[in-house]
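TASK: fixed-backbone design
INPUT:
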């Protein structure tokens, strides 16, 4: 957590995270939701990646909408429903990501699970374009992300959908399009 300017006031707040209420005293008003989750409440997921809304490692949902926790002021999350990747609602996607082998180090996996779950909740039968768009905000620096398409298909199966013949089925051409290595930002060191 960054050192606040001396004049920054603090507030006590209560966050509802994964269905539980957490009182948090003396939160600097400049603190992000990510900082409070990780450093005050000991949630090791979401991950702390870029801190600038660029990598998707810190994805959570706020009132069922995916959000980069590093960009959400903690005070703005009061009286909202915050769900981290550890919420059971993301279990199916987490299992699918693991089963698809979607990345060796796993750093991006929590954010990926949130992105996949959010996609399938608003679009149970996503086509390749919808999959590409939904996952484009999650950057993986060490994986051939063709597995991500497979992870979506597996998550869909786990949710009870019929993956066979759907637009989310693995397809090498589609996989190329969501490979972060092909995105310009992935070229940065
Ligand atoms: S840490 Fe929030 S988007 Fe990268
Ligand atoms: S598996 Fe390492 S960043 Fe995605």
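OUTPUT:
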């Amino acid at each position: 957590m960054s050192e606040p300017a001396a004049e920054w006031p603090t507030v006590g707040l209560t966050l509802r995270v994964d269905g539980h209420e957490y009182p948090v005293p003396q939160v600097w008003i400049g603190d992000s939701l990510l900082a409070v989750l990780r450093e005050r409440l000991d949630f090791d997921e979401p991950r702390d990646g870029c801190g600038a809304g660029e990598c998707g490692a810190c994805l959570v949902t706020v009132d069922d909408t995916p959000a980069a926790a590093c960009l959400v002021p903690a005070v703005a999350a009061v009286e909202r429903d915050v769900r981290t990747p550890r919420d059971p609602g993301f279990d199916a996607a987490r299992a699918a990501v693991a089963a698809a082998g979607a990345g060796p180090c796993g750093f991006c996996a929590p954010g990926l699970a949130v992105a996949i779950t959010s996609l399938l909740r608003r679009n149970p039968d996503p086509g390749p374009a919808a999959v590409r768009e939904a996952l484009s905000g999650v950057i993986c620096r060490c994986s051939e992300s063709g597995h991500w398409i497979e992870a979506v298909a597996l998550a869909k199966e786990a949710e009870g959908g019929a993956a066979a013949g759907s637009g989310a089925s693995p397809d090498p051409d589609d996989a190329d399009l969501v490979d972060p290595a092909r995105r310009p930002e992935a070229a940065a060191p």
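COMMENT: The helical segments are 33-40, 91-99, 109-122, 128-135, 146-158, 172-178.
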